[in-house]
Amino acid sequence: METFVIGLSIASILFMVALGLAIIYGTMNVINLAHGEMVMIGAYTTVLATKHLGLNIYLCLPLAFLVTATFGLIIERTVVRRLYGRLLDTLLATWGIALILQQLIRIHFGLGLFGIEIDGLGSDLQNVPVPAELQQAIQLFGANIPVYRAFVFVTALALGAITWLVMYKTRFGSQLRAVSVARNTAAACGINDKRVNMLAFAYGSGLAGIAGVLVSGFKTVSPDMGTPYVVDAFLVVVAGGVGHLLGTFASAGILGEVQSFVATWANDVYGRTVLFAVVIFILLFKPQGLFVTKSR
Amino acid sequence: MTYRTASIIAYIVFFAVVLALPLVLNSFWTNRVAIYLVYSICAIGISMSWGYAGILSLGQGLFFGMGAYMLAMSLTLAVPENNPVPQLMLLNMEPNAVRDLCCVTTGSFLWIPFRSIAVGMIAGIVVPCVLAAGIGYVMFKRRTTGVYVSIITLAFALIGQLLIINNQPLTGGFNGLADLALLEIGGFEFDPYGPSAYYAVALTLIAVILLARYMLTGRIGQVLKAIREDEARARYLGYDVENYKLFIFCVSAGVAGLAGMLFTLTSEFATPSLMATSLSISMVIWAATGGRASLLGACIGALIVNFVGSLASESATFQPVWPIILGLLFVVVVLFMPNGIAGIFKAFIDRPGKAERLGGAKLAGKTERSDKAELLVKSELSAREA
Amino acid sequence: MKNHDRRTFLKASGLTAIGLAAPSILRLGDKAWAADEIPVGIMYSLTGTTAIVEKSMNQCAQMAIDEINAKGGVLGRKLRAIVEDPASEPRIYSEKARKLTIEDQVPVIFGCYTTASRKAVLPVVERRKGLLVWPTWYEGEECSKNVLYAGSAVPNQQLENSLPWLQKSLGKNKVFIVGSDYAFPRGMAKTSKTICEKIGMQVVGDEYLPLGHTEWASMVSKIGSSGADVIFSNVVGDSIVAFYRELRNQGYDFDKLPLCASTTTEVEIKAMGPEYALGSYVSLPYFQTVDTPQNKVFVEAFKAYAGADAVTHAAMEAVYIGVNMWAMAAEKAGDLAPDAIVANAGGLSFDAPQGKVTIDPDNLHSYLTPRIGKTRADGLLDIVDQYAEPLVPLPYSSVGETADKRVCTTSGATL
Fold first, then answer.
1. Among B91, B175, B348, whose Cβ lies nearest the Cβ of C7?
2. Residues in contact with B9: Cβ distance below 8 Å, sequence separation at least 6, in sequence order
């Protein structure tokens, strides 16, 4: 039971990071390796906001969304926009962006060069205070359930639901789906596909920012904290089926549980090895992912 | 001057410079440039599979690392204190284990063949090749393409790194293999800081370039380019697309393995961080900077990126910002120089004015597209010949 | 036109690069240093994963050098630091060590933090007759004659005091050993098992997670169900933060399930937020709270150097010891050559912030004072136990080395 709960909590983080990536990759066919850095920026937003503005972690959620969405917007306008249709090139360019963002944090956005340092930035490890009510565990069905993990899980579900609503119940969502299925046809029908791209990229980045806030509660905040996430999240996206919300949800769940069960049964190294192996198998035998949109 | 003549001249100049360098360099720079040339060989491997066949492997570090480990295992056993059993195993064995390579730690028998340097050297190429053949066979038979290949290779590299780190009694774990003898062949010792190791690397590099060029300008290269441009069409024309891809993927892995061995030779250690994602992606960047579809370009790209990187990190002014410089370089290369340095070189040789004079259709800005058209025609022609 | 601009730019930047590099690339014979200066290498990562700790070590080394220069330098010559950034990558450690040893011809490198980085530097200093002064506590199992292990603790110096103490003072008998997956935690676990067997403690678990791994949920629940009544942690780096926070989030309390760590320093405690480490123990020879006159001066000097909220920690103090003891050895030898330094370092003593530190002539490691600290609310540690005398370093204690039966001697290691 505990193993299952741990799996769910691994899955919810994976899901939140992967959700944004799924939208960006699914709609725009852009592999955003700087996505992990969006998680990192979300976490730093939390550090700065709790330190300097006295905000608590709940208020940081929307704030981090806005901040990272802005970063996403800037990246889309300056670099990614020029690379549509060049899938593998986006991978390289965004890796470069990731390096730049990490170093910008380390040198206090360049101010460090002039001797100005902002408390909360730089290459030191940072931490985020977690409200006392989240720092405990409750007993449920005989299992020890950390409240913070439950909070992460609930937030992930809520974000999934919101994203589903955005995708399927709003005008922007239908435009987004139209663009992802047939860009040129959609554009011919009068959809401003450039604007859709821009907003989708910003929204996807914003989701990663929220994941960053939640991650900052139980992990170290440091400039290179984001890198491990992007690989895992990308595995989730491709395993789940590109551009398929439910697929991302399910594959995050499956991969989270796989890792948790193998980790308990053997150790985390084998947990990760099996995780990679599962993804490789999915890609080999169901290259379109577990859940395929048939209409294509 | 045509592009062909120009590029032949460029190759000759490059070879001449590479061969002449040790005459003017001190021993530190001889060693450093030798290591950069090793990276060049990696970039050539990438260029072969990515530039020519469109297979972007993000797990090239796995093959590079395997090559490095194979030679490092042999060189570990060549140290007198590591006989009959390497110290790393003595430190990790169970208290009552037999002090013999057969069974001192679990799996230690795998080291037995590496008592011979020759086995280590052959394994440095063969093992990555065989591994690539296995991975490639499954991938390409399942018709996995594009970004999925990148992800699968990346995942394999991550697995490889995890397993090496986790099996410390067998592999030295996170610390890698550092207590190595110098490579000695027939009484001749390769000093990493002297011209001997440098020329071992430089001559290998030249040989790899020449062989790769011979192979890729020929029929195989044309077919691979056709596959890169349109896999389905190549298949309809009757080519065995899977086997061609498998072939170039293995060759590229073998080249990476070879580079890995030379890394051990010049850097005197092997570490699991050679299999890290960041190094694999760096290799791709080197090739992209130089020009992914140009062997010489990729090679020069690796040299330039590493050279600029170390200069920037060693100057007090640039030290805090050098990762930014590196990051900007990636972005600028991808945005503005998709064909890298080689592309600029080509555009310079095929200046618009000249192209018009020759009545050619190759406008500088459109080389890629016209290449594509040209290729399709060529591939169809050669198909008919066949 | 556009192409032309680019070309000119490339050409110009290429020329600049060559211009910058040319003087040092070419065979100009020996590097011409000012005769009254001694170049020394400082090589701690300023970027990458281990930069967090290594940045402060870099500052500390520069501070120590400044102090020595203020007192007139070494052999009447001022030290001049050449700082390199190896970016937390063994590959680049090796490259920078080559640059320092061969190109800059420094007589000594103060550097490295992880064993992986030391192993990458080892071939360079051993084959090119350089000298590395290594600061960090580590797993031992090394006996190089080109490394001065000044201030670096080895497993027996962190375990011989702490495990018996956990048993006697806290009454704990079932220990779960957890660590990051590499040589140090594994070496520590081996020595721990030998000691536990001797004193009758039971090792109920011995598990590892990859370095940098931050998903600790499975491990923590494994510890919980193992029946352990005390945890010994050899977890390293940013994993530490995730580990402690996970323990708290799953509802564990250090009063009921005490934890003693070998690598959690003031830096990591500050980084995770002291409330998460409150009440946990650490076994190291140095804490910021050590009560010696030398330490008061040291802490004040470092705060003046690096900022008022800077903390001092064991790895940093070891850097300080290293720089000072190297200078002492050089003065004694009257020579900067690595073999002269090594030959003269044995037996030297230095009044370090932690107390008297002496270099063992056999294995070039240091006699250090084992201490146990208990984390308090401000992130510093109260010292709850300390040895009266420095303890002998036994780098091969994991394979049964004792003070009478040495594995590592002046002639090398015999396993």
1. B348
2. none
Q: What is the rounded (10 degree) CA torsion for C164, C168, C173, C179?
A: -40
ipTM of the complex: 0.82
Longest CA pairwise span in chain A (Å): 58
Return the pLDDT at C16. Answer: 46
d(CA C257, CA C175): 10
Q: Residue C358, exposed/middle/buried by CB under 10 A (0-12, 13-18, 19+)?
A: middle
* Average pLDDT value for residue range B31-51: 94
Please measure the distance between the N-terminal and C-terminal CA atoms of chain A and give it in whole angstroms: 39
The answer to whether the CB atoms of A280 and B334 lie below 8 A apart is: no
Whether residue B335 and residue A103 make contact (CB cut-off 8 A), yes or no, is no
CA dihedral over C168, C172, C175, C177, signed as positive or negative: negative
pTM of the shown model: 0.86
Helices C239-249, A147-169: crossing angle, 10 deg rounding: 100
Interface contact C123-B31, CB threshold 8 A: no
Q: How far apart are CA A146 and CA B219, in angstroms?
A: 63
Which tokens is B110 given?
A: 């795998």
Asked if residue C313 lies in contact with residue C265, where contact means CB atoms within 8 angstroms, the answer is yes
User: How do residues C282-321 score in pLDDT, each as one tens digit?
Assistant: 999 999 999 999 999 999 999 999 888 888 999 999 999 9
Query: Which of A91, A227, A280 faces B152 most closely, judged by CB atoms?
Result: A280
Tell me whether residues B178 and C10 touch, CB distance under 8 A. no
- Residue A70 above 90 pLDDT? yes
| Record: contact A147-C249, CB cut-off 8 A | yes
Per-residue pLDDT reduced to its tens digit, B337-363 = 888 888 888 888 877 665 455 444 443
Choose from B25, B82, B271, B275 for mutation: most chain C CBs within 10 A.
B271
Over residues B147-170, the pLDDT tens digits come to 888 888 988 998 899 889 888 888
Q: Which residues of A touch C208 (CB under 8 A)?
A: 267, 269
- 8 A C-beta contact, residue A2 and residue A143: yes
Say how many C-beta atoms besides its own lie within 10 A of residue A81's C-beta: 15
Model pLDDT for residues C260-283, shown as the tens digit of each residue? 999 999 888 887 888 889 999 999
According to DSSP, the residues that pair with A121 across neighbouring strands are A119
Determine the Cα–Cα distance for residues C329 and C334; give it in Å rounded to an integer: 8
Task: Compute the mean pLDDT over every residue in chain C, rounded to the nearest whole number.
Answer: 87
C231: three-class secondary structure by DSSP: strand
Q: How far is CA B187 from the centre of its chain?
A: 29
Kindly state the DSSP code that residue A53 receives in the 8-state scheme.
Answer: I
Judged against a pLDDT cut of 60, whether residue C325 lies above it is answered with yes
Per-residue pLDDT of A209-237, as tens digits, reads 999 998 888 777 888 888 888 888 888 88
Structure confidence at residue A291 (pLDDT): 67
Contact A35, A201 (CB under 8 A): no
Residue in A137, A259, A264 nearest the CB of C250 = A137
